[in-house]
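ok posting inputs for the iron/sulfur cluster job
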Amino acid sequence: MLTKHENAKKMIIDVWDDSAHIVENLPSKRKYDFKAFVNIMYGCNNFCTYCVVPYTRGREKSRKSEKIIDEITELAKKGYKEITLLGQNVNSYGKTLDKKVTFAELLGEINKIEGVERIRFMTSHPKDLSDELIYAIRDCEKVCEHLHLPFQAGSNQVLKRMNRKYTKEQYLNLVNKLKKEVPNISLTTDIIVGFPGETEDDFEHTLDIVKKVRFDSAFTFLYSIREGTPAAKMENQVPDAIKKRRFQRLLDTLTPIVFENNKKLKNQVVEVLVEGVSKNDKSVLTGRTRTNKLVHFKGKKELISKLVNVKITTPKTFYLEGELINK
Ligand code: SF4
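and the output
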């Protein structure tokens, strides 16, 4: 299209009707030269009733595993150490491929790529989190001990109206399995407060999950209408004042738990991938642990892109302060 435009010197418009096809080998603009995001699939089939993605991005389609492996192998050759696999629901990766490959199998293949040091992925839908995948997280040494597993709401009635296709009990059961198989796993989540029809009792179930799972962090949202979604037309929209009150209670429950979790890391030595310098103090470097926690410590900027060991000295709620113990 660019060539046509260059030759014709006029606007070129093309609407492609083959939305099932994935275009490979397009150039990517990458922000870092040591960590990369790699799409493994596009679209979503889940139709959560509050979400526009299935309407705007279309149905789920997976890239062929060979294409993903080739891309990551090339990235590793160029020095990329950390790969984050992206998809709306990576746990259902491979279902649309002729040659079936599960997400756990894909992780196993990426784990073998020389040069890759860390593998992350998001997002995971609880309904598709298989035992096979839990074992892959446990057994692939490059897969980081962090899982972002959105639960959205704790009440089974609300989950049903959200069309999430799991119950509170199933979610907690998954978390128990994960913690048993990967004891040092850090868990993060997404939570929506004030979904249509949410009662005080429903909201208590959300708080109950937060207390039981003890998340390491959470993206918390006040429910807001997305036009064109089924939830936008649901009756019993929750008034803003109630949503805000519940939201504050959620933060008041969550924040001390996050801090408690971080406090356990005091005096521990953690591996950090150095990502850059602090905005506020140029002598301070920032990076992330395998469990995806943000760490600040003094060091030279030559360490950016390196894996270093840092002893945690002062845990805070949203980050950890530490001291470099090797170079
Ligand atoms: S919330 Fe996630 S899983 Fe649900 S429809 Fe949207 S993209 Fe799909």
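notes: The domain at 30-263 is CATH 3.80.30.20 (pyruvate-formate lyase- activating enzyme). Residues 44, 46-48, 51, 53-54, 88-89, 125 surround iron/sulfur cluster (CB under 6 Å).
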